[in-house]
């Protein structure tokens, strides 16, 4: 898959919305903003790990090698998740039409020859949120393509929540 094909896939992927909720978060947080002793930290970190596990289960079911956790990309994934809270639609692009996650990877000096991003959002009160998100992503051809892309070897999943509305957003950042 070329970088241009990947960009085209990402543009089409921007249409997936797991759920639309109110638009202006009052108080947003991701796991990097919370003390590890707080229950919300455990909730967010567990959701991130569960989605990685579900992704690898889907990859294995489709004959694709698992991805490894990408600790270097985790801050970017968490930032991208937080950026999706309260917006009218999930968005991979900045105002100049540039892929935000690609810019963040470049700024962090994190190299890749192929990278991808999946975004999702839902109500965090759902106890099966990670299963529902993974199922929705697998049902979308462009998101499924990222999940099952054989070139991708590393993955970071960030979760962020709007503490006022209960909205939760996820960003999956894949690299080769």
Describe the fold and architecture:
A hairpin with a 4-residue loop joins strand 4 and strand 5. The termini are close together. Helix content is 40%, strand content 18%. Strands 1, 2, 3, 4 and 5 form a five-stranded mixed β-sheet that branches. It is α+β, with helices and mostly antiparallel strands and 176 residues long. It has six helices and five strands, in the order αβαβααβααββ.
Short description:
It contains 6 helices and 5 strands.
User: Which blocks of ≥5 consecutive residues have pLDDT under 50?
Assistant: 1-27
| Integer-rounded radius of gyration | 15 Å
- The SS-based structural class is alpha+beta
Q: Bin the helical content.
A: 25-40%
The overall average pLDDT, rounded, is: 81
SSE arrangement, N to C: HEHEHHEHHEE
* Spatial separation of the terminal alpha carbons: 11 Å
How many beta-strand elements? 5
> How many distinct helices?
6
Shape: globular
Q: Profile the largest sheet.
A: 5 strands, mixed
**How large a portion of the residues is in β-strands, by DSSP E?**
15-25%
Keywords:
about 180 residues; alpha+beta; about 40% helix
List the helices and strands and how they pair.
Blueprint: H1 3-13, E1 28-30, H2 39-61, E2 68-69, H3 74-83, H4 100-107, E3 115-123, H5 129-139, H6 141-147, E4 154-162, E5 167-175
Parallel strand pairs: 2-4
Antiparallel strand pairs: 1-4, 3-5, 4-5
Helix pairs in contact: 1-6, 2-5
């Amino acid at each position: 898959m070329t970088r241009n094909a990947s960009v085209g896939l990402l543009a089409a992927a921007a249409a997936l919305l797991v759920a639309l909720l109110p638009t202006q978060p009052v108080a947003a947080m991701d796991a990097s903003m919370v003390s590890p002793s707080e229950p919300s930290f455990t909730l967010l970190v567990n959701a991130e790990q569960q989605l990685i596990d579900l992704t690898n289960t889907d990859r294995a079911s489709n004959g694709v090698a698992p991805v490894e956790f990408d600790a270097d990309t985790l801050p970017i994934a968490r930032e991208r998740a937080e950026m999706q809270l309260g917006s009218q639609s999930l968005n991979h692009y900045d105002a100049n039409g540039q892929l935000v996650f690609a810019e963040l990877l470049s700024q962090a000096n994190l190299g890749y020859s192929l990278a991808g991003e999946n975004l999702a959002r839902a109500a965090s009160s759902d106890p099966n949120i990670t299963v529902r998100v993974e199922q929705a992503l697998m049902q979308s051809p462009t998101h499924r393509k990222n999940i099952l892309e054989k070139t991708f070897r590393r993955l970071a999943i960030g979760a962020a929540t709007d503490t006022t509305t209960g909205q939760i957003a996820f960003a999956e950042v894949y690299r080769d």
